Amino acid sequence: MKKYFDSFLQYRFLLSELVKKGIRLKYRRSYLGIFWSLLEPLLTMIVLTIVFGTLLGRGDDKTFPVYILSGRLLYNYFSGATKSALTSIQKNASMIKKVYVPKYLYTVSGILYNYIIFLISLIVLVAVAAVMGVKPTVYLLQAPLALLVLLLLATGIGMILATLGVFFRDLEYLWSVALMLIMYTCAIFYPVDRLIKSGWAWILKYNPLFCTIDVFRCAVFGRPMNMHYFLYALGFGAVTTVIGVIIFRKKQDEFILHL
Amino acid sequence: MGEKAIVLKHVGMKFNLSKEKTDSIKDYFIKFVKRELQYNEFWALKDVTFSVEKGDRVGVLGLNGAGKSTLLKVIAGVFKPTEGTVSHKGKIAPLLELGAGFDKEYTGKENIYLYGAVLGYSKRFIDEKYEEIVAFSELGEFIDVPVKNYSSGMRSRLGFSIATVVNPKILILDEVLSVGDARFRKKSERKIKNMFDRGVTVLFVSHSLAQVERLCNKAMILEQGRLVAYGDIEQVAPVYREMLDKCEDKSLIPRRKRRRKKKKICIDMDGVSENGEQRNSKEKE
Asked: Domains along chain B?
């Protein structure tokens, strides 16, 4: 255990360099740079509000944009982080083939730099909530819990995908289909009660990402969170992280033979 | 006998060469069901045991595909050996395919920090040595240009400058002494010679026997993943020369069988033979 901690300390600088690289390169050569991480969710929120607000007859509900934005931001992070984790080993193949570095650094750095961009983009949510008159309450203190669970989920599933992705290149395409399915079962742009009434509520309840989003939304809209949802998502995140770390460690020496 | 810098014990490295790659789940599944999941096992290294003493400069000789690069990568820690153990003392500076690890979108300056971090340098160390790296690479104002716009010479010059700014205990060279133009080549050879003088332990792969004879005091020959000779360069060089001659004979005049008596290779295999190992263990006691 101590050995791993020492090696982590030794490579701390590399991890921070890799995270910096991810953030820097994401918006390099675009005129607005990092502002895109604010502008992009804002623009998609407007589109989704117009489309689904009118479609579902919620055009007069002023808090609907906040509802959409909170769901979309969390989902977007999850999708971006897991996608980057999935290809992290292949993308750094040239480095891995030359110099020894603990390989999890490449995977973890992708998950972390996406997280930092995600945290920055939360500014948009604060601004939109202020404009739309969603006032902060004491329940906002639940928000960090949801954000931590989200990171845990992305890390766990990311580590599993990173390991499998080395051996099966198909996973990249399969996962983007799976992500679409996850998106539709996260209640991002439709109200939850509609689905619950239809008898398909279990789809939501068993989706850990939806549970996380729900906990986060409760914090934003000033309601106590659903304890079951929180514990389920936390447990799911913890279990996948343990599994992810174990299989990653078991298989990491074989990665290089498949690059 | 001095201190051991690198010790390899019964190292083997196995690769699975499947003729068709099973990279997709469908393929894997079909083959799994049909039980066709067979691999051609290929041992790039087999039962390699040797040790290098501190300050030794060892040339690694062998024909193409003899396992030279694999050996260096095993020592550098890039490959984990299938069997056996590798241990080394002190920091290793691997000079393998310079500049291949750069990020193309990154500028030269950013790559110095990134590549330095990969090689395990600290931020403070790179801050201190930054000027020196830039000066040695002779990149001038190109240092703020993305690496994708560099010429291959510029790229390897930068790679060489970053990798050699440390004072490593062990230096691994894979035919990198041919970096850049003639002038830079001289400069880099001088820098490496300087490191030699400081008593660094060197593993050096080259096809040029002359170069190995010039730079190294010891040499080893690999043949199909096995260590066939290891000892002082004066003793190993003639063996290698004879090996090369034989290969040429075979390829040029395949029909005429030259019946030479097979000479047994008897060279002092320091730390390799059982006697040697016993000697070592006694010394430790």
From this structure: 51-91+168-284 (3.40.50.300)
A256 contacts in chain B (CB < 8 Å): 78-79
- Residue to mutate among B28, B37, B42, B118, with most A CBs inside 10 A, is B118
Query: Nearest CB to A256: which of B78, B114, B123?
Result: B78
CA distance A122 to chain B (A): 28
Dist. CA A179–CA A190, nearest whole Å: 17
Q: Mean pLDDT over residues A115-126, rounded?
A: 94
Q: What integer pLDDT is reported at residue B274 of this predicted model?
A: 39
Query: In whole angstroms, what separates CA A250 from the centre of its chain?
Result: 25
pLDDT tens digits, A156-166: 999 999 999 99
What is the tally of helices (H) and strands (E) in chain B? 9, 9
Residue A172 falls inside a structural domain: yes
Q: pLDDT confidence of B265, banded at 50, 70, 90?
A: very low
What's the rounded Cα separation, in Å, for the pair A181 and A70?
18
For residues B253 and B240, the model is more confident at B240
Chain B residue with minimal CA distance to A172? B24
| CB-based contact A100 B114, cutoff 8 Å | no
ipTM of the complex: 0.81
